[in-house]
Model the fold of this input.
Amino acid sequence: MKLSNCHNYNDFRKLAKKKLPSPIFHYIDGGSDDESTLNRNTDSFNDYDLVPNVLAGVSNIDMSTTVLGEKIDFPLFPAATAMHRLYHHEGERASAKAVEKVGTIFGLSTMSTVSIEEISTINKGPKLFQLYIHKDRGLTDNLLERCKKAGFTSMCLTVDTVVAGNRERDRRTGFTTPPKLTLGSLLSFALHPGWTINHLIHEKFKLANIIHMTQKGTSIDKSVIDYINEQFDSAMNWKDAEYCVKKWNGPFALKGVMSVEDAKKAIDIGCTAIMISNHGGRQLDGSRAPLDQLSEIVDAVGGKIEVILDGGVRRGTHVLKALCLGAKACSFGKGYLFALAAGGQKGVEKILENMKTEINRDMKLMGCKNVGELNRSKLIHRK
Done:
């Protein structure tokens, strides 16, 4: 399979599986426990049917929207995800260039393998930083200050990872960061020489944003699960989140909100957006899918805060369904990481262009000339 033959999420996934050693592929692909929430995230979209109007004069479609203070060309952006250089040797450099080219927001994780400062020179478009609160609060302040200085336009605090989910696939495959050759993984690395050679000949793997603050940034000879459990602050509370909102003093999203109660609290502490998310089904298995919670949360917040749906998005029609229920935009993670693994910058560009094309075509088929016309009259919940 070639990148040119990747037409949808499953195609990118198949090509990534061919290129990545098994532990790394399954790190992207997997969820927690029985992966029921992982699967429900996408399956939930099938519970809703779109209701199109015809003869609507849809020769010109405006897909643009404004989210987190920035106008973007279409209502979808890649979620901030960790450690891109595990999936392709160019890592976040490739992702950042691709995202700017297609005209949407680029998200950078605290646990990225390219620094805040370097990304700011690569991508001149809107940039969101995904913050994790570490036990070392000086590190949190340092990240906020560096992002402000580097010209990041928005901040996102992830709040659903106070302890790592039970990612059993990672235990079975022996996934570590950086990858280690063991008897169990040696064959898989040997069968993927392209990835293995690139990993060996390019710069050493590091968590570029925190390398100067903690030895864990340079020597992570254990699983991501252990890193989260050791370094992230499980004592994090609403006062800590409010501190970050005030210190940032700009567009700020809380990511990992799944309840009406928490959505209202996010408004109270000054957030400008929430991201309804269960961390891609990688944390609490058996929890609700974001789409299942969307309409109730939208109704409760009453337009006082932007609502972004994160999780399970595979198609342009998924984005349309979320917008019909009141989301301002959507984000997705697995799809573009598979695309990065499949083809680097060109892969990320291709999946984003594919999604952009799908959204445009689907809006025309819906009889909607702009995203504001996507509302609940265009959607029916299947009983």
Remarks:
- The first strand starts at residue 48 and ends at 50.
- The radius of gyration is 20 Å.
